## 1
Amino acid sequence: MSGKQVVNIGIIGLGSRTETLLFSILQMSDVKIAAICDLKQERIDKILEILSGKVDTPGVYRNYRELLDDPEVEAVFIPTSWNSHLQIARDSMKKGKYAAIEVGGASSIEELWQLVHASEETRVSCMMLENCCYGRDELLVLNMVRQGLFGELIYCECGYEHYLGKEMAEEYLSGLERCRHNLRRNGDLYLTHGLGPVAKILNINRGNRFLSVSSHATKARGFSLAVKKHANMEGVRFNEGDIITTIIRCANGENITITHGVSLPRPYTRNCRIQGTNGIWLENAGGIYIEGISPCVEKRDPSGSISETHEWSPVESFYEKYDHPIWKKYKDKVASGRRGYDILTIEAFIDSVRNRTETPINVYDCAAWMSITTLSEQSVALGGAPVPCPDFTNGKWIYTAAKNTSFWSLDEVK
Amino acid sequence: MSGKQVVNIGIIGLGSRTETLLFSILQMSDVKIAAICDLKQERIDKILEILSGKVDTPGVYRNYRELLDDPEVEAVFIPTSWNSHLQIARDSMKKGKYAAIEVGGASSIEELWQLVHASEETRVSCMMLENCCYGRDELLVLNMVRQGLFGELIYCECGYEHYLGKEMAEEYLSGLERCRHNLRRNGDLYLTHGLGPVAKILNINRGNRFLSVSSHATKARGFSLAVKKHANMEGVRFNEGDIITTIIRCANGENITITHGVSLPRPYTRNCRIQGTNGIWLENAGGIYIEGISPCVEKRDPSGSISETHEWSPVESFYEKYDHPIWKKYKDKVASGRRGYDILTIEAFIDSVRNRTETPINVYDCAAWMSITTLSEQSVALGGAPVPCPDFTNGKWIYTAAKNTSFWSLDEVK
């Protein structure tokens, strides 16, 4: 239908995320599911049932190394656990296959170096499927930043604030991975939904880089209360602080503040703020202020002194003029919300596999973003003392221009 | 008119803040301006002109020590510069006179110890006139917190984000104090508008205290651009980073994140966030979420998974039921906005003088709040490393109950 060459993929790990990925993949005529893999037969059966009648039956594996040896498979999706996907991605690249991993943070700096080395040795790419990089507002602001409307960038905020009390109580009973991490660790465990788009906007690994991390945890109360309320179990203690505040210092003098909060009841936000010398986007206010465009009223108070009052413009008021070309190109064919982001993300990965080019989110991005979780834990353990960020590019960030490598180069999407 | 005994005050420092203070003081029939003092004759003349025909002519002094020796003066207002008001407040207390200082940060920890010692030696109180402690929303949330609606408090944010580009360009030309501090220092120079109300809500110095400070500065660009634009001078460099992010760790396990930003164009905010195990106020969203009161909708997405969507209630929807008694008591007689806050603040100070009681914002509050500026500078200088907060109460915070000493004790205002 699209006239593009079909890309043969394998999927390793057939949990619930695979089902939502399939929702998007099955809409794409240029992708063939050549092989699937899981340790558990019931998961394999469930996915085969979903695929039945829609596509040719894929090869089935229980051992992911055997799937990686399947010559038909060109690229693998790896929606497995936080503790296994980096190792599988490394092994995939070593077999010459592009790897798509899900979001999450690393457990050690070492597993990220292994990922980087595998990609450098084989010249095969690893992409995190961070769909929030393809959010409409994130792309809008990136486009406006590239056009100079925000001036020189100075400061950013982002985060993941999403109350998961009920979910965590269920996961406590079923022993699911995410809950175990929250029980044992203390740091920003889930930050790429916010940090990914911000890192792209700040050109991280392309003329800029993360320098240091300082991270701060509050006491932990929320999940204990949720487990008591929803699972009727008293006295369960989580190590993860309710709110984790992390500050990243960047080479070009910008700071990024990240807030992680999933255990206290509140409305959802990714807490985005992008601020430069000429403008600011504040997700929580639903507004953008651009000097010279947004309202600025001069007021005189009763005592006679003059002050300026600056007012937000609604984010939506910029859509028509500044929607990103990627969003404009795809908006007619994608559904709204998360699945829309998913399709843009997966298409970007598949296009890179087909063309044997670097993925727009590359192995250095994966390493830099995921390392912040590990570094956050370290800094929390040190009472908030800053810890240094490794340079996973070994100096290549100094010479890499944003324009030539980023998906968001405006030239590329014309 | 009020039937209360008149309190005789002196005013030291007759700049523009004195004019706005007089706007409130002249409405109060139980306050007599007994003496005024300034180094400059033109300022004295200006204030005398404002007072002329309204009140009896006060005693006039050029040397503040002479005003402090005036036996008629019971208490002094000290709206002088950041570098002089702490010394004058110390000397006032040593002469047995209550001292009211303006907002601002300290330059050293030592000048705060001197302030504390003067108060402890004479049993005379020093109050910072932090009018934002008397803001309607701040008092509303304090009242709701005291009634348990927020659950156990976990995390707070506050700040001062107010674009002062034009003002700073003018001050650069006239050599005004605030500009000089921004030229030379790098830390959170102006934080009590946000931190004062938060400290009251968290019962700082009354069963809780500030433990450590970690502070982070971005590069400095905004004021340099403002001076170029508004004063036509190129290449003026300010040391103050455009955005300062400061995290305070508290003894009871809460963290406070403070944002200072006065050099980049944007709408005004004090950036308040008060979050507990059962609810959150977020000023920038204009909303409060309280579990069990605010909307929570269960949604099923196309793949069948269930998620909860929590929605903000407008702050205004809580006014009728939860407005603080202080606000209810005063709202009919005060004007709206800042001057309304001013009257509440000044009346609290005057009442304490009349009754010879501790001021609701006392010398320990002044020292703790103002020390954060100094500690922020230290931490910025150390690349964000946490620095410890002195305990200005020397352990008294452990034994001081919030109920017995705070202005906001609900019993007191009935």
Note: Residues 43 and 65 of chain B are 18 Å apart (CA to CA).
## 2
Amino acid sequence: MGQLLERAHARATGALRIGITGPPGSGKSTLTDRLLGAYRRDGRRVAVVATDPSSPYSGGSLLGDRVRMGSHAGDPGVFIRSMSTRGRLGGLNASAEMVAVLLDAEGYRPIIFETVGVGQSEVEVIDRTDTVVVVVAPGFGDDIQAEKAGLMEVGDVFVVNKADNPGATRAARTLENMVSMGPSHGWRPPVLLTVAKTGEGVDEVVDAIRLHNESMAESGALRSRRRARAEAEISRMIERLAAQVTEPAVARYSEAVMAGATDPWSAAEEIFNSFRTGGHRPRGQ
Amino acid sequence: MGQLLERAHARATGALRIGITGPPGSGKSTLTDRLLGAYRRDGRRVAVVATDPSSPYSGGSLLGDRVRMGSHAGDPGVFIRSMSTRGRLGGLNASAEMVAVLLDAEGYRPIIFETVGVGQSEVEVIDRTDTVVVVVAPGFGDDIQAEKAGLMEVGDVFVVNKADNPGATRAARTLENMVSMGPSHGWRPPVLLTVAKTGEGVDEVVDAIRLHNESMAESGALRSRRRARAEAEISRMIERLAAQVTEPAVARYSEAVMAGATDPWSAAEEIFNSFRTGGHRPRGQ
């Protein structure tokens, strides 16, 4: 896979990556479907990678490929796959960064990552995208404070979807208030209203994404974000290599921990030091 | 900190660790408060470590120490702290495993970890505890499928709290059905009804936790779970040491990636190999 990625990285041109996140039931998939349609009208190839909340044990994707995105099912210019949060795409153990680079090299732009935005996953979304769209439904203001704060921090564009339902204006006002209290880094996240089901307001979301991207490019924030992404991916890969090499020693030492002969932290230091001085060899070398 | 942990690990006696998880609004904190009371009646010192959904950026805890657990605020036999999901406890950069070992050495038992159970956090709960109690509110059956499945997989004991509200019986029936479809490993997770606000049903939860622990000890599952925990902690610590040592090189290489001179995966391999042959030295050595 190394050479494939190397070649893909050389061919990739920095396609825009959009993150779509928000609480369950906010209509993220429908909005994503609409955005797909809007970008397709420009004749571009577009990719959607949906990160489903997957089983921590099977590593499998519970929902499978997004059957809900039926309107683009037969379109060869659209790539739609779901990816488990454990980093598996269609049986392939790939990181979101790898997937994005491969899609970029194939000419897909934008690349949309859709994720259920609760807990850790928002962090993952922002780490892999340039522009994060937070989608909420009316009634958002009633959620617990902490969840709201997490979403507020990652959003570059806010969307109150299902705006034909009661409470939409109130949710938008809550968001506006929170945005105005947040830190200002040159870009003030807009709060938009959509009815994804009918397509209402979707063009405004497309415009806001474009404007955010232009603003990021101008201020240098885009470069910083992408550099941080490169750093994170290198570190992640080093971790994986280290885990592979130290695996047998970790198993051995965990038995010693169970026997009370050592503790996990002393064990880690011993393994680490012996590994650095060439005491452990990767299996197969 | 190394010696402190080493000594604590030697003194720790394998105190029972209980995980309390479930969707926001299910009344986890109130139930935890009740469990605290029940264990305190036995004269034991009890600890609660609450993992709050914290800002991914500040690393800080939004809710602060649990003011809601007011009924035990002045009790010296009770230790209550909140810990951010990024692994910080009161400004200390400690892992849950470290915290549990330190509390264990101080004679706290059980040690209760309370977490908002959505996404990754269930996985973290199960990784650090012996018995996981999943708490839901009536109406649980209406949640999205994926979230339910995630909770079902981690639960050793299920509790429908707020059972004086409509829908409790239906939620319990849904859970019973899901439990019966799940894998059987010798322990069939019970589904209990509680009204934590009044204390109703709390003794049954205490009993179920004890029974699960006995069953785990008998079958050898407790040992396996704890061994896996030791392995995970060793690996986590090795990762941290590796990250520390390779940090300057990662920063350097990420610039090269931005300049198009390499890709993240080739960079990781180069850093890793040079690190293994002694090309990189930890700072300060």
Note: The first strand of chain A starts at residue 17 and ends at 21.
## 3
Amino acid sequence: MELLKERIRKDGKIKAGNVLKVDSFLNHQMDIDLFSEFGKEFLNIFKGENITKILTIESSGIGIACVVAQYFNVPVLFAKKNKTKNIAGETYTSRVESFTTGRVYDIIVSKEFLKNDDRVLIIDDFLANGSALQGLSKIVTDSGATLVGAGIVIEKGFQPGGDLIRKSGIRVESLAIIDEMDEKSGTIKFR
Amino acid sequence: MELLKERIRKDGKIKAGNVLKVDSFLNHQMDIDLFSEFGKEFLNIFKGENITKILTIESSGIGIACVVAQYFNVPVLFAKKNKTKNIAGETYTSRVESFTTGRVYDIIVSKEFLKNDDRVLIIDDFLANGSALQGLSKIVTDSGATLVGAGIVIEKGFQPGGDLIRKSGIRVESLAIIDEMDEKSGTIKFR
């Protein structure tokens, strides 16, 4: 998606440890017009798939998923990272390790909201090591629902997540795949 | 907002400890069409205020804020609950206590994204004790931006947050205010 690549080139900042900072438009401040463009693009990619639900993970996936969902006319469900008073009853659970913080945590989704006749599209902002996406896809599988695929905004193609998950048979569509990025020169090479 | 009250009556579940469970449409599974109606309503309330930015707090405020923001044509900024690698540099910070979990935590917003010429609308899903709203409003004040007001989806009118914050001079507009709810009978009385 050319518009997104341009935006990453213009506003993305490469930091030590393979961190791409896109907090001016994607995951702290959020450019909602840009999110609408993601929605059009994902609809174009996944139309005809009869998607019934979009699944994402807190926190930075939620805004993107909600705007994208308007193009599919489906509800959004987000996996929670902590058990709160508000989720009681039976849940699907999966273990995830955050690339950004290094923390390991359980994600949970209430069983009530994923049924075996659901056709689920996972939406997330980043794909790096693939841990969040694996966790979400395990939850979909556990529920008996059909995982149609995953729509990712930015994939770090030089990290193993994308290859790993595609090899497992899951359709992964990323709007921008970064093959190389260099902190010193600030250059980014897209696939 | 009648549509919301009906939905709360139909799908809300009252739990012990004054918890109202609305996770089938508001803060776990999210009904995006309903969020669009919130957007129309908040635009109706706050139009003419020249809002330049919507501020919310992770996680359950984000989806609502992003859909609402489409009606104002402004970006969304969300306060983060934990410092991650992705927020470096100068931040505004405030302390918040969660009604739902009882945890106390710092919320942070990057200074880069709140300027003194911003006119900010805070959007959140719940107002109970008002701690999150006070934390967010402190951040807006610290930044020198103008706080236009707060748009809340569900206010628990029997808890002190709403009164407290209105008395401090902040405009708070809630789409549904609950004056009483009874766990045993399952009845909810709206203001």
Note: The two ends of chain B are 11 Å apart (CA to CA).
